[in-house]
Amino acid sequence: MTVSVSLFLAFKELWRNRGRFFLVSLVIALITLLVIFLAGLGEGLAAANKEYLSNLEGELVVFQDQANLAVLSSQLSRSSMNDIRRVPGVADAGAIGTSSVFIEYPGMDPEAEPVSYSLVGVEPGHPGEPAVISGEQLAGLRANEVVIDERVAKQTNLQVGDTLTVKSTQGGIDEFYPLTVVGVTDSQQYFFQASIFVPLFTWDNVRPKPSVGNGQNELTYNIVNVQLENPADEAAMIDRLQSQVSGVEVVNVVTAYENSPGYAEQQSTLNTQRGFTLLIGVLVVGGFFQIQTLQKVGQVGMLKALGASNPLVALAAITQIVGTNMLGVTIGALATLLLALGLPSNIPIIFTGPQVVIAILTLLLIGPLGGLVSIRFLVRVEPLRALGLAS
Amino acid sequence: MKSTLATKNITKQYQLDEATITAVDNISLELFPGEFVALVGPSGSGKTSMLAMIAGLLSPTSGQIMLGGEEISQMSEAQLTAFRRRKIGFTFQSNNLVPFLNVQENVELMLRLNGRYDKEGRARAVELLQRLGLGERLNNLPSQLSGGQKQRVAIARSLIHDPDLVLADEPTASLDTTLAYQVVETFAELIHEQNRIGIMVTHDLRMCRHVDRVIQMVDGRLEGIISDRAEIEALAGLESHPTPARNGHSHGKIKQNGYIQTPTGIMTPALS
């Protein structure tokens, strides 16, 4: 009974003052848009930075000791790899080398700015090699083959069977290496660039470096991805690897990407912005409903004198606050969705990740949170006010 | 049978810093169904505090208030809320109607609050509003009504849920004299007809012409109860001439319990 009268009063009031409430919903919608965008941007930037690393098959990442967990500074040699593979508890390990290159491909616009991609060298059949979603995996360590990320496929229209040319500056001269696209993989951005994957020796051959072709020096690469026999053993295995292999620092995948250059700073900046925007939301909703409440103290006193209980009055107010807030969040989310459809694909925004879900849930909470003060106030209004008396 | 209202030695004191202020001083009253009384007195005489205590909005410092068998002065906050909802009808001086409900919805609100919002109730609400001359105004919002119309809506609301006690706090304060007379007359008519207890607080003695008794308060004390028709009419500024008594109240009325109800509210055993 209380509930139905509450809802009746709440919705009648909302409807008769719909202009005013809708305005607040719109403000909430704008806040929602901003918060979801920030969340999506946070997610997108994080993914652009870490996607490849976070999708690694192996649990641990081995860096060179002095590299401070920076992938590009880390240099490991084949002897380290041999040592790593001999450590008991290691199921498999794969070397990973990264660098950045420009590519040319059939049908590309000669006027267009060349786009650079992450060139990642992996060992076929070992951790670090991404699984293809179409086509074939890389055939062998020296094959002139390439697996491309679907972002690359989208941007270049390259398909399995096509040939792309890696343009690489070696010893001051531009060298061109044709590679056959054998497969397409997904979600493999690294270092803010879409990735193309080649076998490790091919990588060493084509990557930009001070001298042309295979150097005389021993092959070096950046990191090793280690897959454990027992993933639960992570902590013990980190210690074992660090003691049995000289000159390495071992961390798990999460620590590895959290230490990517700028990752933590970027995320904390975005989180601070999001936090402040949510706070503004709480204050806007709280302020509006408090003013609204102050205006109707007399009316609430009268209702209570007539016999409306505190739960009835409070429930009506909560319904209005939650309703207004939900309408705002829904409009904001839909607006974000529409806007997202119009965004070019190279803007690093992801609206499907957990951060966006958390943002929406938090946004749904700002209404009730902001309205707490006014509800407390409403409950305290004395029915005696109806007679112009109040203690 | 409707309930009788009795207050026994009720006193209300407020503590203001060091001083104790007695707003209502030891008042005993007895009011009967079908009786419309005016509670009059100057500002600060305690009439509103008195009304608030009878309404269950304010608890007395001492004394008892009984409506039928229920002792209002002993009820908890939640019990009082339910009591007001079931047993009392209100007309206030200001903030009377819910601004976002139309005329009919305002009246029906009391039915909704009491869980009696049904077809029969709605029909009664419309009927009552038509009787009060608001048949064309059912879908209007309070902001679209005149002051007199608003008070009539409030009167309909104060009666629709079949309360024992109907309380009106300065119902004519914002009305011009002609309109005020009309409102009070309609009010009196319905109270008598529906056999409820009606109490109207007013500082305007002219409004007393339609009441059965005038309870005068000064400085929190009961100054006197006027029940003589001629005296009431003199008080209300009317020519003192014989008028037929309303509902025979000034002549006393034999109640079902075998007591005679006299205009002063004193009960004496009926002679058979």
Structural class call of chain B reads alpha/beta
Strand residue content of chain A: 15-25%
**Beta-strand content of chain B:** 25-35%
Which CATH C-level class of chain B is it? Answer: Alpha Beta
| Radius of gyration of chain A (Å) | 29 Å
Helix content of chain B: 25-40%
Using DSSP, what is the number of strands of chain B? 13
- Point out poorly predicted stretches of chain A: none
Helicity of chain A, as a percent range: 40-55%
Name the average pLDDT of chain B. 85
Provide the spatial order of strands within the biggest beta sheet of chain A. 3-4-9-6-8-7
Question: What is the count of structural domains of chain A?
Answer: 2
Principal-axes shape call of chain A? elongated
Number of helices of chain B: 7
Assigned CATH architecture of chain B? 3-Layer(aba) Sandwich
Q: What name does CATH use for the topology of chain B?
A: Rossmann fold
The oligomeric state of the chains shown is heterodimer
Element string of chain A (H = helix, E = strand): HHEEHEEEEHEEEHEEHEHHHHH
Structural class by helix and strand composition of chain A: alpha+beta
Outline the structure in words.
- The complex is a heterodimer of chains A (391) and B (272).
- Chain A is 50% helix and 19% strand.
- Chain A is of the alpha+beta class and 391 residues long.
- Chain A folds into two domains: 2-50 and 264-387, no CATH class; 51-260, no CATH class.
- In chain A, the strands form two sheets. Chain A has a six-stranded mixed beta barrel with strand order 3-4-9-6-8-7. A two-stranded antiparallel ribbon of chain A has the order 2-10.
- Chain B has one domain: P-loop containing nucleotide triphosphate hydrolases (Rossmann fold), CATH 3.40.50.300.
- Helix content of chain B is 30%, strand content 27%.
- Chain B is built from seven helices and 13 strands.
- A six-stranded mixed sheet of chain B has the order 6-7-8-3-9-10, sandwiched between helices. A four-stranded antiparallel sheet of chain B has the order 2-1-4-5.
- In chain B, helix 3 runs parallel beside helix 5 (147-159).
